[in-house]
Amino acid sequence: MKIKLRTDQALLVEQVINNLDKHNLVVSPSGSGKSYILAYLEKLLTEQGYLVYVYAPTIEVREQLNELMKVNGSNNKTRSIIEDINSDNDAPDYLLIDEAHHSEAETYQLLFEKYPKAIKIGFSATPERLDGKGLDNSYQNIIIGKTVRELID
């Protein structure tokens, strides 16, 4: 792997790896390197023989993740939720979800219903939704990274 994680990022990866039997939500501030963690985890899981699908809500974020995964030596590409719901794909082992605060939206719920055995690993800086819905319907285990102040220090 070409991505080198900082100590705090590696700790988050370790916590995810230690909880791969649960749906995990990684909460860390904007600018803390969640995309790097996601790309690192994608490659790590893929190298272990797992089928991993990566999702992001916008074309811009998908392109950024695609570039990071490519730099990290992966051939995987981020997927569009709408296209994926309507296509005939193999069932993945893991779903990596960027901007996971969208996970309670109907489209994401359809995706999760399509792949009921897949373990979800979500990433978000803002785990609260404007509509007040929690994310506990989608994720069982919350992994919290350092605060902005801790990262600055």
- Give the % helix: 25-40%
The rough form would be described as: globular
Mean pLDDT: 91
Largest sheet: 6 strands, parallel
Low-confidence stretches: none
Indicate the proportion of strand residues: 15-25%
Q: Output the helix-strand order.
A: HEHEHEHEHEEH
Task: Note the total helix count.
Answer: 6
Total number of beta strands: 6
Care to describe what's here?
With 153 residues, the chain is α/β, with parallel strands linked by helices. 37% of the residues lie in helices and 16% in strands. The chain is built from 6 helices and 6 strands; from the N terminus they run H-E-H-E-H-E-H-E-H-E-E-H. It has helices at residues 7-17, 34-47, 59-71, 81-85, 106-114, 148-152; strands at residues 24-27, 52-55, 78-79, 94-98, 119-124, 141-144. A 6-stranded parallel β-sheet has the order 3-2-4-5-1-6. Strand 2, helix 3 (59-71) and strand 3 (78-79) form a beta-alpha-beta unit. Helix 1 (7-17) crosses helix 2 (34-47).
Task: Write a brief structural summary.
This protein is 37% helix and 16% strand.
Task: Spell out the blueprint of helices and strands.
Elements (H helix, E strand, L loop, with lengths): L6 H11 L6 E4 L6 H14 L4 E4 L3 H13 L6 E2 L1 H5 L8 E5 L7 H9 L4 E6 L16 E4 L3 H5 L1
Parallel strand pairs: 1-5, 1-6, 2-3, 2-4, 4-5
Helix pairs in contact: 1-2, 2-3
Please describe the structure with a list of short key phrases separated by commas or semicolons:
six-stranded parallel beta sheet; 6 helices; alpha/beta; 153 residues; globular
